[in-house]
Amino acid sequence: MKLKKQVTVCGGAIFCVAVFSLYLMLDKVQHDPARRQNSGGNFPRSQISVLQNRIEQLEQLLEENHQIISHIKDSVLELTDTGAVSPSGHLPFRSSNGSWVLPFDGRAAFLSIKPQDCQFAQGRRSSPAELQMLDVYSLLSFDNVDGGVWKQGFEITYDPNEWDDEPLQVFVVPHSHNDPGWVKTFDKYYYDQTQHIFNNMVVKLTEDPRRKFIWSEISFFVKWWENADIHKQEAMRKLILGGQLEMVTGGWVMTDEANSHYFAMIDQLIEGHQWLERTLGVIPRSGWAVDPFGHSATMPYLLKKANITSMLIQRVHYSIKKHFSSTRSLEFMWRQSWAPDSSTDIFCHMMPFYSYDVPHTCGPDPKICCQFDFKRLPGSRVNCPWKVPPRAVVDANVAERAALLLDQYRKKSKLFRTKVLLVPLGDDFRYDKALEWDQQYQNYQRLFDYMNARSEMHVQAQFGTLSDYFNAVYKANDVAPGTRPPDHPVLSGDFFAYADREDHYWSGYYTSRPFYKNLDRVLESHLRGAEILYSLAVAHARHGGMEGRYPTTDYALLTDARPGTAKEVVVIDYGSRMLRALVGLKRVIINAAHFLIMKNKDVYRFYQTEPFLETDDKRPTQDSLPQRTLIELDPNSPRYLVVFNPVEQDRLCLVTALVNTARIRLLTEDGQTLPVQLSAQWSSAVQMSPEVYQASFMARLPALGLALFHLYDSTDSPMTLRSDTLLRLPTHSQTVHGLDPLPLRTVTSDSDWALISFSLYLVLQTIRRKDDPQVMRVQFQFVTYGTRPSKDKSGAYLFLPDGKAKVGFGYPLRTVFLQAQLFLDCFNHPLLSSVPNDVLSTAFTFYPYAFGPVCVCVCVCMGLPVGLSPAGHGRPGGRTKTFLPPNGAGNGNNPQRPERENESDRLFRLQGQSHALQLNTDGSKEIKAHGFS
Ligand SMILES: [Zn+2]
Which spans does this entry mark as compositional bias, Low complexity (predicted)? Predict the structure, then answer.
């Protein structure tokens, strides 16, 4: 039961955001031909014939219009009673104690869970991972001791004869990291830099078959491919099929792993993989993630499912890197924490040093490695901060240069269990100039030729792809690719939060640009909704033999802006792309829903310019909040409301629509009147709108289905329940007026609040139902962090507070409390514009207020900070944790240990706060207190 509740609560919270309400806006469809044909002014006599023609055209249009309207009316009235639409279920009734109860209808109220489904969680694991990341965290002191040339590590020594029997195999892997939007927009990066990388790649890799390269951002590659001529395409195809160029990971982007929902992570992976397979017949084998700010355990799970056998990660806390280096655990099998066996295992390589640039990839000493970044040869715009520049490799210095580099290779290889070494060679947007290709490939080839020709050096060095490296590791260990090499550890857990030095925790980006993080989630939920409805519509169309008449709509999507760390102009570019995609997805949803609700699909007609339905909100610009659609009711004819449930279970949910009248009657599809709660729509903090009301009702929605409701402007219906509003104001000085027929009372002191209590800062703390002694405690807290006075400050990436969080918030909050029979609503204004019907958007309605350097962490609803979707959210087996800001300011050299909470804490909190529905012993459900879930 407990578990069932949790599942329902989580499920509801996650998917509630994806409920779309569609309105049949009949008025909208009535074209106004006169206006369209608007010409105005006086016509000379000679144009009378033209006018007559026009009048005829108008009449014709009117006639067509009438036909359209009658089609619409017919189709709406003859709704299908099979397929996607099902009856709305039994009606709620009022019990003797005053609460509304839904009768038990024989259907399961909660998703039933079989005991065997939970076996993985019972703790009986046949082969638990040796390395549990939570244990590793508690083991480490996070002391940041100076390690010498390898500042965050230690001195590495070796015996020169170690490779006498088995030479060191070195794979130098050239790469270029291209962000699809960061300082520049995606397009600007492409035109300024990325296209030149590909153009040079085709020429320079073709010059020598020993040259290799890897590429990971398929979004850029597709753009180049579509602009390239057939000869360049063929040359590129040859390089890929010949193994010189490897597509690594194969995602549309190198996805962020902390903020992204797994749906988006999968989606971008599918996008890239499908393109690669269709266009080139290529299936990526190795994962490459050098720039995500911390690594989620979801990624190895998804990569494994996507047929990838090995993966690489880079941005891991430097203390973890040091620890794993000292125990030679940088290569491990990454296992899901819930997995009972090795079925989810994937081989993972963790890069040991600070960065993926050249100074930090050849070995432990950046001062030496930088000398082997030949783009930095004297005369170049980039140089070595360690003050020793690279030297071109010539006969006179090759012996000394090769020895110096081999020493670094050998030291680095001491951190691994196999005598195979990976040496990435690249950086951000590298290899855009032909000169750099020559500098890197020619100088390295001279070094390789020298080393390989001298057996006493016991080394085999070459350019390689990432899979060349992994294959050599498997071969050296005598195992098949993807299987666990002997003696390599198994690890469970993840690598959040990330710190690259000192106490620079990269958790600031969890909350950067929460508005766009929210827009991205809204977009994803619409994408999922559109996919479902579109598939259902196409299936129905095929079944009915009318495939050609259903519009196949192309929808664009874009999936990288989540960290929120891009420049303003790039953010606007992302926002505009997302809004365009959202508008397109709504069109797909509208068309599909229109088709699906019609009983007689033969009369279906696709309205390109005048959509048949309208969605429940609109966004005028990429940076505006959605504006909800007002349904104007008519006493004579009904308006229709179509509600879509994108979840694969029946669900009971609260639906709210904006209407223009307080006289409302709501009927189910089969004509039964439903109780509707009418509440005020606030036009400002102190003003109820006289023109707009919120109408809310409970509806049972079929799984993946549509339900239809009729709305009438009707004289008082006994089923219309009016909210009684109690308003708590911070001071007496404000006046607020109620509006007939919605009563309003105002209070300023706590004593007047019989049902709920608030903390000092007007934050909700307890709820008690009328006639019910039980007090429900609610966690809802605003805390603020100051920013520290030192040079390094909190920003888009880092979270560097000046100390512990201070409870409280300096805003005068106005609290509105609605008392009504159907549900109960409580919200604060102006901070929270309202508490909408779904939990997630509550946490996100926060965006319009900029906080400058003060980082605000608000625990609303599920205990999630605003704008933060923690890594644990939606991850299979993922664990969540929060970070304790350092105590005391300015102690930059003393990184704090992250404080973690375990999964059961979070579930407890979820449960403690969610009381939307209570299952009674007779199987009926009681609506307790919506709005606090
Ligand atoms: Zn990047």
Answer: 885-895
CA 655/CA 836 separation, integer angstroms: 10
pLDDT at 591: 86
Report which DSSP code applies to 593: H
Number of H helices, E strands in the chain: 20, 38
User: Which of these, 334, 303, 330, lies nearest to 316 by C-alpha position?
Assistant: 330
Structure tokens at 774: 């039980």
Contact by Cβ (8 Å): 822, 666:
no
Please list the alpha-helical segments (H only) found in 307-420: 318-326, 366-369, 398-413
Query: Across the strands, what pairs with 656?
Result: 696
- Ligand 1 center from residue 662 Cα (angstroms): 53
Give how far the C-alpha of residue 96 lies from the chain's centroid of Cα atoms, to the nearest Å.
Answer: 45
Q: How far apart are CA 803 and CA 788, in angstroms?
A: 8
Q: Are 799 and 814 in contact (CB under 8 A)?
A: no
Query: Which residue stretches of the chain have pLDDT < 50?
Result: 1-21, 23-43, 74-75, 77-90, 108-109, 553-561, 751-754, 759-762, 810-811, 830-933
Alpha-carbon span 852 to 491, nearest angstrom: 40
Beta bridge partners of 85: 706
Token output for 800? 């560097």
Nearest to 420 by CA among 428, 434, 436, 409: 409
pLDDT at 378: 96
CA proximity to 561, closest of 524, 513, 626: 513
Annotation marks residue 494 as catalytic: no
CB proximity list for 128: less than 8 A, separation 6 or greater: 492
Beta strands in 90-167 (DSSP E): 93-94, 100-102, 131-132
Nearest to 837 by CA among 927, 776, 762: 927
Distance from Cα 506 to the centre of ligand 1, integer Å: 14
Confidence (pLDDT) at 451 = 98
Yes or no: say if 314 and 291 are a contact pair by the CB < 8 Å rule.
yes
Q: Half-sphere exposure of residue 476, counting CA atoms within 13 Å on the CB side?
A: 20
The Cα–Cα gap between 288 and 851 comes to 36
> Dihedral of the CA atoms 513, 517, 523, 528 (nearest 10)?
170
User: Which DSSP helix (H) or strand (E) runs through 547?
Assistant: none
Contact criterion met (CB below 8 Å) for 616 and 640: no
- For ligand 1, the distance from its centroid to the CA atom of residue 179, given in whole angstroms, is 5
State both tokens at 881: 């944790």
C-alpha dihedral (279, 284, 287, 288), degrees to nearest 10: -40
Which residue out of 81, 164, 256, 291 is catalytically annotated?
291
Answer whether 0.90 is exceeded by the pTM: no
Phi-psi region of 250 (alpha: psi -120 to 50; beta: other; left: phi over 0): left
> What is the dihedral sign for C-alpha 279, 282, 284, 289?
negative
User: How many A from CA of 276 to the centre of ligand 1?
Assistant: 21
**pLDDT per residue over 674-693, tens digit each?**
888 888 888 876 778 889 99
Q: CA 467 from chain center: how many Å?
A: 29
Whether the upstream peptide bond of residue 830 has omega within 30° of 0, thus cis, is: yes
Give CA separation, 885 vs 485, 858, 903, in Å: 40, 15, 21
> Residue 213 and residue 431: Cα distance in Å, rounded?
10
Residue whose tokens read 């989580």: 10
Q: Ligand 1 centroid to 564 CA: how many Å?
A: 12
Alpha-carbon distance of 495 to 330, in angstroms, equals 13
Dihedral angle, C-alpha 392, 394, 398, 402, nearest 10 °: 30
Query: Angle at which helices 218-227 and 195-207 pack, to 10 degrees?
Result: 80
Q: For residue 236, which of 208, 261, 266, 206 has the smallest C-alpha distance?
A: 206
How far apart (Å, rounded) are the C-alpha atoms in residues 175 and 214?
Answer: 5
**In 3-state terms, the chain is what percent helix, strand and coil (to 5)?**
35, 20, 45
